[in-house]
Request: fold
Amino acid sequence: PMDLSTAHVLVTGGGTGIGRATAELLARRGARVAVSGRRREVLERAAREISETAAGAPVVPVVGDVSVEAA
Reply:
């Protein structure tokens, strides 16, 4: 497997589905992961659970909507 111990990754849609699965795989391979999405509760739960499956690697939830461009 690829060593991602020096990688920092932001996964949009990281609270559910393919985004969450991607975040989990990256975290298990050593990347520092932040998961982004619109629902705080979903992101916090996903970050906690991903961290547990990745030997305690910190996963940061980031609430936001990437479909809205800031002025």
In short: The first strand starts at residue 8 and ends at 12. The longest helix spans residues 40-53.
